[in-house]
């Protein structure tokens, strides 16, 4: 019996009928209830935190408080909706707005404009407290605080280091390298110097030159992840006083907040994020058909890389991945697309070891995944050359892609995984 499945492709949909008995996994995010009263939810976790006393007992009158917050690339965290409540709770403790500052955790990203501060944090926050920016290349802004057990020197923003109390904020989602975002990422890379970021991120590369990326630094993995472990040591050197992080629904609304100890509360948030977006599968399959979910998630390959990384987790080593990615802006962003100009993965890797960038790492990881398992991309016709440079096959239609995949798999009763929202769903193989 055939069953029809729909996949987002830009602003449209592509439908296909597949043999129902061979579709082993349909990977979809779990529904999650959105928080209706954000202010009440934030107050609740601030007063009943995980691993620490309530905020009012952690912060004392007279403290100079610095709040670390994500930059505009994480605008989806919606700091503007929960930071006012945090400020009001600090005010109740006896901390006036003039003793509170917010530092934008830019990492190596560019500075915010005033307008972007308003977009990211809201007009009320911009009016009420001082806003500073931590920009990794500005060496004078960072001070040495110690060294990790892996020999990585740690330089953090001096305004944060010199504060009486530091509060970390952010959002928790799955992360391609660090396992999960949020928590300690506010510190590394958020308020770390450029050299410190480079040293930490280099742990994502394989210990052996020429072997590409570390298999331990991947989506949803914290155990034995050297990048994550090093980040924890860096956070411990700072000893943040408190954390407030958000977890989201598949629609991008708040699902829950966690607050308290910078590690224990965050870890609980990771579990919640995994419950929503981590989807158990009965086993890997011969074929995975995946879509990002349409525009804007498939606006370019950089955005589409989330879908590729997730779908790779569901395919057998002898299998094939079919991707439906429109990629109308295939050359964007330039600091990603330029990495595909190297003649080989080895040259791409050597360049990355000389100067690590996250886009470069993603480009390298995509190359190694495509080398290990054939990837067939259904995209716009003009993108054919770019995907070939990325080491992937192309097809003009999903039907053509399936015919190509069947020739590679070379068996009649092959198994299938369907991922219609591959950008947001993480397949987790059942034990």
UniProtKB/TrEMBL annotation:
It comes from the Bacteria. InterPro entries: LarA-like, LarA-like_C, LarA-like_N, LarA_C, Ni_dep_LarA. It holds the Pfam family LarA_C. Residues 284-424 form the Lactate racemase C-terminal domain. Signal peptide: none annotated. Residues 9-205 form the LarA-like N-terminal domain. NCBIfam families: Ni_dep_LarA (NF033504). This is Nickel-dependent lactate racemase. The gene is larA.
